[in-house]
Predict the 3D structure of the following.
Amino acid sequence: MKAENSPGRTTLTAVVTGAGSGVGEAVARALARHGLRIALVGRRRERLEQISVSIAQAGGTAAAFPCDVADIAAVDALKAAVLARFGAPQILFNGAGLFGECVPIAESSPDVWLETLRINTHGPYLACRAFMAGMVAQGWGRIFNVSSAAALSPVYNVSSAYQLSKVALNHFTRQLAQELAGTGVTANVLHPGEVRTEMFAAIKADAASRTGPGRDMLKWVEKVERTGGDPAEKTADLVLEMLAPANDAVTGKFLWIKDGLKPPMPSW
């Protein structure tokens, strides 16, 4: 990525949460291939370090920053560590997320329900709050929050925490975009598609263990397996596209990958 996107900078830095697997890993690797320095954020230190080494072997620059993204003190420490290593980042990709359980509310675990909101909604809030001021000070930045088509779909009869977490994330991002208007920093949500990630595997295992409504999620699982799912690299392509000057005015939007299995739904 060229420095013209960020006045006064020769190298851009991206913070990628959920970088240890799936969509987050694909985005991190793609940005590194385009010359960005990558702060790899996730819970699994060993996995992050493996990816960091792999990126370095390919000629890129990355560092591992183990962190619970929904822990206030941990995110404060993450901010300090990233600033010390790379300086203020210009790009934030909030990819960390949980699905929770395939059960109705009456059968849900309060711990799992609240943890799903904590990671999916509180985590992006804390990361945005930590890094947005540095972007504003530089006059340019991009914030991407990973949402889901579930937030735009009819209400499900299971998995209430996941759907709610993405609805809340959408609203948060729209408000964030409003507050950042005129600063050169944009904030958008995106649907990464039907990707066969670790979350997908967790949904499959949980649904298979259920009876009743929860087991109906296997229909979606079977569809994704039958089609092969959407490549995680499509999300990386979308992120790279959004870094171009032509998209400086795109903010507060729900973004869709190109030619995904799920056609774009009405949003805003």
Confidence is low (pLDDT under 50) at residues 1-8. Residues 3-194+232-256 form a domain with the Rossmann fold fold (CATH 3.40.50.720).
